[in-house]
Amino acid sequence: MGRRYIITIDGPAGSGKSTAAKRLAQALGFHYLDSGALYRAVAWQTLRRGVDVQDQAALAAFIKDFKPHIAFDGAGFHVLLDGREVSRELRSPEVSQASSRVAALSRVRLWVTACLRNLARNGGVVAEGRDLGTVVFPEAEVKFFLTADLATRAARRRKEWQREQLALDLEKTMSELATRDRQDETRALSPLKAPDGAIHIDTSALTPEEVTNTCLAAIRDALSRIEE
What we know:
Elements: E1 6-10, H1 17-28, E2 31-34, H2 35-49, H3 56-65, E3 69-72, E4 77-81, E5 84-85, H4 93-102, H5 106-119, E6 125-129, H6 132-136, E7 142-147, H7 150-163, H8 170-186, E8 199-202, H9 208-226
Parallel strand pairs: 1-6, 1-7, 2-6, 7-8
Antiparallel strand pairs: 3-4, 4-5
Helix pairs in contact: 1-9, 2-4, 2-5, 7-8
């Protein structure tokens, strides 16, 4: 591929966005961008520092000075705060809940959007999140929207948390995801929805390899038409 395209992958938690985005970035030789990690970083640091995110003055002061170090390539997206890698801590259920709350705040969303656009200024990225194709990169050359049924998504998220010894039971995990879905889909700012022109893929019955291959075929088809 001669040009450095932007590819977005949106969808709810547990739909397979992260796995697909990482695999596609590696296959294409692109960088991987994880918008969720930035919201989680804000949530994690405000929790640690006791910042009242509903206090506009306190939040503005925090965001002004919040400058995490970000390292990203085709293999991963790493956030360093106070000089150390915190990507693992950002995946806890507590931070997940808090990140959904801060993601509803306009000041936080503007900061994350600006950060992502700066990271993608040279193109050649696969970016995943919940408003990447609708708000952050509306002109992206290829957009995907991944979905999966709630039970499948909960099982995937629970397995992920088990690896970190943070697992909730399946019923609790389903409840957590359903709550997150409602928050994301009904928030006033940048609600979760499929971008115009997005390629929809239900990953419920697909392996990561099948999702990757389906996306790669769609990307090559779309870009071949653009480059004609």
